[in-house]
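Quality-control log, excerpt.
Job 1 of 2 completed; input and output follow.
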Amino acid sequence: MTDESTPTPPHLIEFDTPRLRVRQWRESDLAPFFALACDPQVMEFLLPLPTRAESDAAANRARALVAQNGWGFWAVERKDTGEFIGFTGLNVPMATLPFSPCVEIGWRLARASWGQGFATEAARGALQVGFAQLGLNEIVAFTAEGNVRSAAVMTRLGMHEDVAGAFDHPAVPEGHVLRGHRLFRIGRAAWQATRSASE
């Protein structure tokens, strides 16, 4: 793993978007995180549906990585209500993928928060952190082949599908319907062009 792929800022990074606060995890996030993880529609393209212990462990791993590195999969809350609605952020995948080493962007939101642009808004902030603060040259995203909602967010972020980079995710059992994954990429220059076009 190169230094470029695993930047370590000297302080905890948190940020706000117009409607959201993207922050370190809290104990109070664990119950609503488990609730969204038990929603079959939220988890339709993910494996497996967790137990409460597994859900808490996943949240605590995310919290530990944010504390260690200053960045990671952050908790996302609405500014207007203070409600935890899910997570977004940057991550170095645990599995060795065909395009490793890499930093991925990802998100998972409660179903009640779908269709309001929250995933795109939070992820745009995460891209800003990755390119402007961490100095990454590229960020990737990937999702199961049938997950058109996540693919649409990736496209809205200015990411481009690497059709030739489609792959079978090693963490998904062979023969499983979710094993095939699409790969999206965005480099620093493309991100800067996307930002300039929106200003």
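Job 2 of 2 completed; input and output follow.
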Amino acid sequence: MSGKFSWRAFISFGLTYAMVILLVSGLILYVSPPGRYAHWVNWTLWGLTKEEWQGLHTLFSFSFILLSIFHLFSANWKAFLSYFRSKRHNGFNKKREFAFSTLLILAVFFGTYFSVPPFENVMALGEDLTNSWENTEDRAPVPHAELLTLAELADQLHLESTDEMTRKLQNHQIKFEDVHTQTLEEMAAANNTTPAELYDIVSKRAGNSMQGSGVGRKTLEDFASELNKNADDLIQILKDNNIQADKKQTLRTIGENNNLPPRDVYELISK
């Protein structure tokens, strides 16, 4: 490498990089899910969360502005000033170009502010794409439920006691500090899972609907047949959760032998 360092080339390359990243991040944020859903299911795209995409977009916006200022004052200032004055004529040069660019900017600004077509349609499309990520099954029970502790969530939604939820977490080998102080988001991060999956564990009452049909009296082999699963696979699932079982044993017997209610055994094998 030789020759004098070219600030003009440096700024041009920087502006190009910043423009590409702004374009990509802007399009992703345009169609990304709302924050309440993104946090609930730990949404990511290309390994980046919504907040990380927002961070990229913001910081490269600042970079683009900074490089644009350098471009204007260090590389293009004389040409820019020539648009405002002419050597042959006194007064303002490039009047039409200035007027049309000003009208365009004003049209975009006020069209967006007053929500008139086509600007309204662009924003409505983005809103539709954003909301399309959510469905009833994955929706948080209350907005930003991931910021609540399990105790707060149980109180708001009238769930089971915190002792019961604690037992369910322990049965699923979920690590936690305190259901009264640790939020679902913090607990999910510590267990490499999502707030939605934790909520499903503590709120799911699998087996309740089957209690009347004798869920505790059915053998593991019976449930394997009903769930279209292999009995040996179910035994392995229970073994992974430190539960000893035999396929000829009923869920009640398995529960009694492992100090668990039958419904908890059913929750594990029906996942």
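Post-run check on job 2. The beta strands are 44-45, 48-49.
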